[in-house]
Amino acid sequence: MFIVERFGLLEGFRIAHVMFAVMWMGLLWFFNVIQVPAYAEMEAGARNNAFDKLTWRALWWFRHAAWMTVASGFVMLAIGSSGDVNERVYTGDFFKSPRGGMLAAAIVLAIVMLYNVWMVIWPNQQIVIGNARAVAGGAEANPDAPVAARKAAMASRQNMIFSFTVLLAMVGQSGFFYGYEPASSGVRAVFYVIVLAFAAVMELNALGVFGAAVGKANTWMYDKHQNAIYFASGTIVFWVLFFEIFYGKLELLG
Ligand code: HEM
After folding, report:
1. Rounded CA gap, 29 and 239, in Å?
2. For labelling, which of 34, 132, 209, 245 has a CA lying 20 to 30 Å from the CA of 189?
3. What is the SS3 assignment for 215?
4. Model-level pTM?
5. What angle, 0 to 180 degrees and rounded to 10, lies between the N-to-C axes of helices 145-175 and 98-115?
6. Does the beta carbon of 86 sit less than 6 angstroms from any atom of ligand 1?
7. Which of ligand 1's atoms lies nearest the C-alpha of 80?
8. Residue 49: strand, helix, or coil
9. CB of residue 73 inside a 6 A radius of ligand 1
10. Taking residues 19-34, what's their average pLDDT?
11. Short-list 81, 92, 252, CA closest to 177
């Protein structure tokens, strides 16, 4: 079959990757933008029931979509690096190009996001939902539940912030970042330092290393979903301006 001979499995994995990514991002944004504000308005009995029946199910799809997104991404990299399937080869030189830089940045952030799903959000949500179930069954509330809820909420908001950069980079690398000329090694080094610093500082902040109290400057972006959206939108403007200022433009249409 032409399509299989020409593209091998790469394009099949691309479609699978985007579907897993849509599932993961869709649920991430649902939790942040709809579930959290809705639960804040619900009375305790209804909320505990929703945690038990709705959030529990959603979290299953959420955490499995997360690792499948990352796994399918790495399979694409492996297939595309072999160099014999099509022109899109992710070789060492690819990662020196502007689009390669953006893809690498997205991969770093996506791995941090996967860590947050499995090592922060999921364990803490198990405490929150376990508490909701216990209270619904007439038991005493677990005093650790509010702290667990805050930890899960901060990591979840941070993932929403990272998701803006990841989607800009994942979609933009083949959509428009390839329209920039390769930059000098100095600019590339600055780019990678900024990416790693952004990932590290934001992640440490989300883990509460600089404090987790509500209403502080370092937690402003986690305290309301609107704040997370404003902050995340700012990161998109930053990356686009960085490329505009530091990278030359190719005359693709000229
Ligand atoms: C939050 C996690 C992620 C999301 C939301 C995401 C999303 C996407 C989307 C929407 C595309 C399609 C781009 C297009 O065809 O225009 C894409 C492409 C791709 N993603 Fe991801 N991705 C994620 C994580 C990863 C990871 C961890 C890898 C690991 C290697 C990866 C590797 C790739 C590759 C190789 C492509 C194809 C690039 C090309 O056009 O040649 N992704 N991703």
Report:
1. 21
2. 209
3. coil
4. 0.94
5. 160
6. no
7. 35
8. helix
9. yes
10. 98
11. 252
